Amino acid sequence: MTDRAVPLRGQRAIATAGILQAVRGMNDVLPDEAPLWQRFEDTTRAVFAQYGYRNIRVPVVEPTALFARGIGEFTDVVEKEMYTFEDKLNGESLTLRPEATAGIVRATIQHNLTYDRPQRVWTAGPMFRHERPQKGRYRQFHQFDVEALGFPGPDVDAEQIVMLARLWRALGLTDIVLQINSIGDRDHRVAHRNALVAHFERNAAVLDDDARRRLHANPLRILDSKNPAMQEMIEAAPKLVDFLDGEALAHFEGMQAQLTDAGLAFEINPRLVRGLDYYNRTVFEWVATGGGLGAQGTVAGGGRYDDLFETLGGKRNFACGFAIGVERMILLLQAAGVAVDPAPLAYVVHAGEAAAPLARRVGEALRDRGHAVVVHAGGGSFKSQMKRADASGARFALIIGDDEAATNTVAVKPLRTAGDQVAVPAADVPARLAALAQ
Ligand code: ATP
Ligand code: MG
């Protein structure tokens, strides 16, 4: 037995064989990729703030009942995609959130957030769904989620869509198209639902197992099926929009007028019903036409969910929101060739006992002026340090040896452009770099 195999007191033996891997479908975002994520996140937060949306943060774990009631029991998410577990201490059934809306509505009700005024809020973070991992589809994925709470619309519905169009522009993305639909109010859906069940019953032979199970529980969801064998039958099904009347129709037309007024092109997709149960009236999706996302092309989706407050035990309220799939956005940004260069301004190379304190002082002086500077750590020859400087992407190497330390100077060497190394008094380095960096 080697020393390593002996467990330390108070610790369990750690298996030494085999390298531990991340859970399937749950990804690491490594430092080379993170700058693009940060570009997306910073841009998104800035655009949301421009429209008056404020940040809200809710737990990643919620009572299972919140999602079962909120999202709907006969949805893919609740039926087969949730990470549900028992709290070992009290036996409570808990679930890793598969989406953010239910948690935000729970928080809104719990803290009486909309009692005196409506709220525009956004949140961001990881969501969890047990799906088959593939490009653009993971088990832990990230969303930016927006909710306008207490607004009857259709003004905020249109505003959210316009806000997303602004976000795509800000990110430099062009090939994302807008699909909208209205799924009306409860009465319209009941009338439509009856017609739909009759249609599905006439076509019972074509229905798959999922569809058959949902036929009476939730026939609307059958329209959302991706089973190719049912597409023709789905295509011929009665359309909900033909059952809308009065206010719901005016709401839908009002939203369309505002989109047109904002110069946005859109397609009305009567088959668009969305994967979660809580929607009413407005539903929309932004779908990427390029970027190799295939069936995972929907980068953002949302709509109105005026009934969810009551479903979760609150007072009747209005609400409209959407979520953006961050991984899919990152894939689009990569496909569009968007590159982010987070390189530091300077990399400080130093050798010798006298050089180290000067290197640290020069680094701090530049950071005082807001620059990013990497001061070499861990020793090594000038040659190996210069390799690191180059690999860092820094624009300048600041070189400090015994001679420079003795004269309190720094040798400034441009790394990205031609130009000689020049000796600069240490105190002048910030000004000199500012001038050279123009
Ligand atoms: P899909 O039809 O692709 O399964 P959805 O209707 O289940 O999507 P929503 O619940 O509306 O998705 O979530 C909003 C967005 O979150 C989606 O448009 C997508 O961009 C992203 N998203 C959803 N599920 C995943 C996942 N498993 N992996 C990565 N992104 C996802
Ligand atoms: Mg899904």
Distance between the termini: 63 Å
Class based on secondary structure composition and strand pairing: alpha+beta
Q: What strand order characterises the main sheet?
A: 1-5-6-11-10-9-7-8
CATH architecture of the largest domain: 2-Layer Sandwich
Average pLDDT confidence is: 92
Number of helices: 15
Note the beta-strand portion.
15-25%
Morphology call: elongated
What's the CATH superfamily of the largest domain, by name?
Bira Bifunctional Protein, Domain 2
Main sheet: strands, sense, barrel: 8 strands, mixed
- Which stretches are low in confidence, meaning pLDDT under 50 for 5 or more residues running? 1-7
What is the gyration radius calculated from CA atoms?
Answer: 28 Å
Task: Tell me the number of strands.
Answer: 16
CATH fold annotation of the largest domain: BirA Bifunctional Protein, domain 2
> Quick one: CATH class of the largest domain?
Alpha Beta
**Bound ligands, named by name, code or SMILES:** adenosine-5'-triphosphate, magnesium ion
Q: How would you characterize this protein structure?
A:
The strands form three sheets. This protein has an eight-stranded mixed sheet, sandwiched between helices. The protein is of the alpha+beta class and 438 residues long. It is elongated and about 90 Å long. It has 15 helices and 16 strands. Helix 12 links the parallel strand 12 and strand 13. Helix 1 runs antiparallel to helix 5 and helix 5 packs parallel to helix 9. 36% of the residues lie in helices and 20% in strands. Bound molecules: adenosine-5'-triphosphate (ATP) and magnesium ion. Magnesium ion binds at residues 76, 275.
